[in-house]
Prior knowledge:
CATH superfamily of the largest domain: Macroglobulin (MG2) domain
Largest sheet: 5 strands, antiparallel
CATH topology of the largest domain: Immunoglobulin-like
Amino acid sequence: MTVPPPSCHPRALRWSAVRSAVLLIGAALLLATLLTGRAEAHGGPVELQVVTVDPAPGEVRVVVRLVYTTDGHGVADAAVTVAGESGGVRLTPAALAPTPEEGVYEGVVAVPTAGVWSMRATSAEPTASQTFTVEVPAPAAAAPPTTPSAASGSSATSTALAGEGGGAVSATSTPSGAPGSEDDRTWVWVAAAGPVVAVVVAAAGVLYTVRRRRARSGASG
């Protein structure tokens, strides 16, 4: 009677099949345990961390991170909002948008007035919140309008004025002693009256000469 090789023995084949099945079952159980543990970890408590608070006139940029406390992984697809209060004025909660980095959310919160604001970032599901304080600066003051300086010496100063229809009107002020001043007008009047005076004097001289000749003619006759 011939005995088959051990590798072909029916009992050996059965034990080999049993060992393979046990190994497969063990690997499946281990994989299931790992997946269950990861799922349970992501289903645990979360923490909301404030990463960046960047105030500017009229607004505050906020960046937060929502993570699982058990493994530090980011929480995706959460609804995160930011609300604020200052001096009895309350802000309507502003939603933060998710970023490409998992668990990080950011957005800009509009604020109506400058000053110190108490704000709270909140995640609705999973539940978490974090408070912080920020000072919002006031808008920069507008520069005062510039006014033209007075001209020195004999130069005239021109000032642009708004005319009818939105046009520009140039008004010129003349310093004392410059052409067109009171002294110049006086000299103009004197210069204009000079010829008239000369004519009157000449006429008086002619009249005087005529009368004198007549007087001499009468005396000789």
